[in-house]
UniProtKB/TrEMBL annotation:
Keyword rRNA-binding: no
Family: Belongs to the eukaryotic ribosomal protein eL27 family.
Primary gene name: RPL27e
Any one of the GO CC terms: ribonucleoprotein complex
Gene Ontology biological process: translation
Annotated Gene3D superfamilies: 2.30.30.770
InterPro entries registered for this protein in UniProt: KOW, Ribosomal_eL27, Ribosomal_eL27_CS, Ribosomal_eL27_KOW, Ribosomal_eL27_sf, Translation_prot_SH3-like_sf
Protein name in UniProt: 60S ribosomal protein L27
The organism's place on the tree of life at top rank: Eukaryota
Key words, A-Z: Ribonucleoprotein, Ribosomal protein
Residues annotated as transmembrane: none
Pfam families membership: KOW, Ribosomal_L27e
Length: 136
């Protein structure tokens, strides 16, 4: 079977609190791990997308509306819907692993690093579809 859920693939989370949110696969565990016997992935995504910005808005308001709120989650493959998009964000320097996702203090640091990476991409104007709100 061809493995199409790879690092950098944009997916939509289908179940749980983040249902309907876009995310990027950081790392996959096709055969599972000791704690989770099923195939799953670490997903970093957008909990709250940036809002629309107009020319008439002040610089302060533009900065506030351009914020991205990320999430970091372990998700079963059955609860992910792949899209045709891929994003080339390098998550290796952030050191994201299953231990980081389960430890609250380390997860907070990882989320800050993810927020910075997403914010940078958003301000550069890359991957516009990923940063738009999903409407269905």
């Amino acid at each position: 079977m061809v493995k199409f859920l790879k690092q950098g693939k944009v997916v939509i989370v289908l179940n749980g609190r983040m249902a309907g949110k876009k995310g990027i696969i950081v790392k996959t565990f096709d055969d599972g791990t000791d704690g989770r016997k099923y195939g799953h992935a670490i997903v970093a995504g957008i909990d709250r997308a940036p809002l629309k910005v107009k020319k008439s808005m002040s610089e302060k308001k533009v900065q506030k509306r351009s914020r991205v709120k990320p999430f970091l989650k372990l998700v079963n493959f059955n609860h992910l819907m792949p899209t045709r998009y891929s994003v080339d964000v390098d998550f290796k320097p952030m050191g994201i692993s299953p231990e980081v996702v389960t430890n609250p203090s380390k997860r907070e640091e990882a989320r800050k690093a993810i927020k910075q990476a997403f914010q940078e991409r958003y301000t550069q104007g890359k991957n516009r579809w990923f940063f738009s709100k999903l409407r269905f």
